[in-house]
């Protein structure tokens, strides 16, 4: 029986084609909508279990497996492990415009053997032989780890923090504590410094996103199925002005609960645009439901799907840092 299971797991995607052709010459050329209608091929399913997607930038994917970081470009089929120590936790990836380098923002986990600036944020340049360099400490650095995927906008990285949630979680403050201010942490990828900016007043469940050249934030509460969508125009970025753009009331919420199960505990929601239309993806039970801006159910997908803020924009532009990385390979990914 073990041999049969092994043979089934190793079965090719197509009986007449090698997996290398089926994956790299066919699947990568299909539009996302076509792939969504199909079940994930077995090698891709094994990839999802083996690797964790940490960050994406300009067609590059930053992956983690057993605390070992690696970088790849699915379009050019390039892959390389990274020399950065497993003691570092990735917070984001970006292109440093003055030098053209792709860099990883790292955080060194507290509790490890003390070193100079051990609680500071660090930067590692892809292709560099130098170890990650410290850029100083940030009081909220530890919380950035739990604040989701940073949102790129105007060349900067953004995280939304709920100071009250953080204080209550780690310092056990009561619900009626006077400090309920929300902030957005901005990492300037040119100056490589952190700063704060104001966030709209939203309920405890919130998501930051970018859409159509605007910075956005969705907010909702557990008592009523309404999702508020706040937007910041690019011209309002410096003045930090937010506008309530949409209020999406989910239709037939009671029936959806019966059919698909409870909302995820933190209401996993993604707001995105597609062909000029605004789409809202909501996690219900083990399903992901797609709503339009009027709150009407458009489609749903089963099979334990998760929604994420990661975005992949494919590029065939060769990156010069790949050949400088030990273990660099092309067309021979170790995880497929």
Automatic annotation (TrEMBL):
- Any matching Pfam family: FBA_1
Query: Domain F-box associated beta-propeller type: where?
Result: 54-275
* Name of this chain's protein: F-box associated beta-propeller type 1 domain-containing protein
Give the species this sequence originates from.
Triticum urartu
């Amino acid at each position: 029986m073990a041999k049969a299971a092994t043979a089934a797991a190793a079965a090719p995607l197509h009986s007449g084609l090698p997996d290398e052709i089926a994956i790299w010459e066919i699947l990568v050329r299909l539009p996302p909508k076509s792939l969504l209608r199909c079940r994930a091929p077995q090698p891709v399913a094994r990839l999802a279990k083996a690797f964790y997607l940490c960050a994406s930038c300009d067609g590059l994917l930053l992956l983690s497996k057993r605390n070992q970081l690696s970088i790849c470009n699915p379009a050019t089929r390039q892959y390389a492990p990274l020399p950065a120590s497993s003691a570092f936790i990735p917070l984001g990836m970006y292109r440093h415009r003055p030098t053209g380098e792709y860099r990883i923002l790292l955080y060194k986990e507290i509790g490890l053997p003390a070193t100079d600036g051990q609680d500071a944020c660090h930067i590692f340049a892809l292709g560099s032989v130098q170890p990650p360099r410290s850029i100083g400490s940030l009081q909220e650095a530890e919380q950035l780890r739990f604040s989701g995927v940073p949102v790129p906008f105007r060349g900067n990285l953004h995280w939304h923090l709920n100071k009250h949630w953080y204080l209550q979680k780690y310092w056990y403050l009561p619900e009626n504590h006077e400090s309920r201010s929300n902030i957005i942490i901005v990492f300037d990828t040119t100056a490589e410094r952190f700063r704060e900016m104001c966030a709209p007043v939203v309920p405890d469940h919130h998501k930051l996103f970018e859409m159509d050249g605007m910075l956005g934030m969705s907010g909702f509460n557990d008592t009523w199925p309404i999702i508020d969508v706040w937007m910041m125009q690019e011209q309002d970025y410096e003045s930090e002005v937010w506008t309530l753009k949409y209020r999406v009331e989910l239709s037939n919420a009671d029936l959806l609960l019966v059919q698909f199960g409870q909302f995820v505990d933190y209401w996993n929601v993604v707001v995105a645009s597609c062909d000029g239309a605004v789409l809202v993806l909501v996690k219900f039970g083990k399903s992901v439901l797609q709503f339009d801006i009027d709150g009407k159910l458009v489609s749903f997908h089963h099979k334990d799907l998760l929604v994420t803020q990661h975005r992949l924009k494919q590029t065939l532009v060769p990156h010069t840092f790949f050949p400088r990385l030990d273990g660099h390979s092309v067309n021979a990914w170790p995880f497929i």
